[in-house]
Each structure stands twice: as C-alpha cells, then as structure tokens.
Amino acid sequence: MSGVGSIEKALRTAPPDRLVEVLDAHLSAAHGTKSSTVWLADYRSTTLSPSGDEPDAADSQLTAATRAFASQTVVVDAREGHALARVHLPITAWGERVGVLSVVLDAERAQQAREGLRDLAGTFAVALQAAYKRTDRYHLDRRRGGRLTMAAEMQWDLLPARGYDQPGIKFAGQLEPAYAVGGDHFDWSVNGDWLTVTALNGMGTGLDAALLSTLAVNAMRNARRSIPTGQSAPGDLADQAVLAADAISSQYGGTRHVATLLLSLNIATGELRIIDAGSPRLILVRGGQVRDMVLDPQLPLGMFGDTRYVEEQERLHPGDRLFIVSDGVHAATRPNEAAYGERELSRAIRSTRLQPPAEAIGSVMRSLRDYHAGAELADDALIVCLDWSPRADP
Question: Which Enzyme Commission numbers does its entry carry (predicted)?
C-alpha cells in the first residue's frame, strides 16, 4: 500500500500525540522528503507555530508558510541553482484552516509532487482534528502566544469548528478576545441540505457568561438532535429556542438570559429561517450593498419561563453574503467617539467583498482592533461570515 491509503492507516493506528512524527516518517519513506514541519494556527488564526521542537524552523520558512495559510494555496519555494526546494501546503479540514505542512525535497520533484502532497496534507488535517480531543499536544502548540482563561477554554472546546467549505456554502467565524473570551459563542451543524447556525451573547462576563452560553448551546443541540428519523428539516428553530429558554429559566429563575440569533439555511434553495432573540445582528451583503436585515425582535432566551418563539423566513439570492456580529462589534464604543458600528462596520464589510469568509472576518476584526487603538477589546466580540450560491448540478 502506498500514497494516501498508507498514510491513512498509519495515522489511524498511531498514538494521537505522535501524528506529526508518523507523518514525517511517511513523507521520508514514500515521497523522499528530507524534512517536514507542521505549523499550527493560534486561536486568532494570525500566527503559525511549529508543532513540537523545531530548531531548524527559520523565519524564511515561516514567511512562506504564512503565505500558504493566508492564500490557501500551495507555495513552492524553489530557488535557481539550489538542489532542494520547500513546498508549503495548507492543512485544512472541511474548510477549517488548521495550519500548514512544509516539506523539503529535491527541487526537480517539487512541482510534480505538489498535488499528491496536498492530498496528503488534507488527510493529515482530518486525523489532526480527531486527535485534538485525545491529547493536549496540539492545544499547547496553538497557544504559545498566551494562556487561555478558564472561560475561553470552555468556549473554544465547545466550538465544533471555525469554518466550513463545501459546494454551495462557505462559512467561518471568530471569537475575540481569543484568549479571554467569555459569553460570546457560535455553534453550527450541517444536516443534509440544511446548515443551522446560532450566535449567542451570554449575560455577564467571564466564567459566569461562559457557563450560561454552554447551557444554551447544549440545550439547542439537544433539541436539534431530537429530530424524528426521516424528517428532512434540521429541526424546528422555535423548538430549539424554547428548549434552551426553558433550560436557562429553570436554572437561573429569570435572573440570567442569553441574547441569541438562530438561523437555518437550505443550501440547495437559499431558504432562510431566522429567530432574532437578542443583540447579535444579521447583516446582508447583496450586489455590493450592505444593509441590516430587519427582523422581529423577540425575548432573549431564559428571560421569562414559557416563552414561545416564531420563525421568520427570507430567501437568499445567489452570491449573497451574511455577517453575524455581536454587540461587542456593532455597539463597540470609545470615550468621546461614535460607536464603531455607526462609523466603520459597513466600510469594513464592504472592503471584504473579494475575500473568502475566513479572510473577511479577519479583516473586520482588524478594523475593530484598530478602532480600539490596539487596546484589548472592552467586550467579547463575535463575527460570523457566510457565503451562499446554488450548488452546480452534478
């Protein structure tokens, strides 16, 4: 057995904390590489760090690896007259950008080997995602830039993934401050033709807010996963909201609540179901124009017992983009200045029109940090970006 099949078996049978070493051995034996480096993205997706001890990981390698990560393309560094070349390959699983695989091999083989190596990097990405829950190694690699607070640890561990990319849909989200986020969170799931997304802003700060958001997310997941066998839709959004609201109300007696936006998108048709139960805003980008989607505001989850919720329906057009932003973005303020959302948010969103969602949220976050003049964000901030186009016929 050779190629992708052999590496799949090797990774499947390897201890979860040894995937990098198993990959390196396979690359050397099957592809003749001289060395390899696995770079993992930090929680802000702005910095790459080598997994394990990599004394030979020079700045020049990091620059090229960062370019491959940002562009999501293979970067070949082959210099004239040099016998060896470096190939930098995105490590991406179902659209979530995880990191970069850099390999050194004979320069004459670099171009020929790039596609096979890219497939191998994709196989490694899936194995790495599975290993995250079975070892601390890769978590430690990702947080070399700082320590997570307890609340942030809970929020990142609760998150299914930060991105998704399949025919018809591209989706990405980010939480800030990445190493100290408290109550802001997003959750999502794909079931058949439906993508379900929830964006939450738990009342309070720090650990209390994280606990509240964790309860809400799991209550909505419980409702979503209770779909009768054979039912085509991903569960009723109203049922999800009611169950979560009842769980929060029962636990906190109305003293705590969670501002929440729930939506389900039919990836095949563009049908959009929405419940606006709080402060996260839904912004539509269509034909270069940016506007808030005007929704019927309903009570935040858990404010009162026995609250009932009503879905609204819209239909997206091919090429539409949606942004979800929490109040830490659209209502961000500085002393004696206009709110960020009034002054800069639309401009920042318009500037992302040529960027895929993962880059678009990074651009808006940078604009938000610039507004705060480099200071740590005063409030949790959540940005989700979603692009929709009809899937091409098979």
Answer: 3.1.3.16
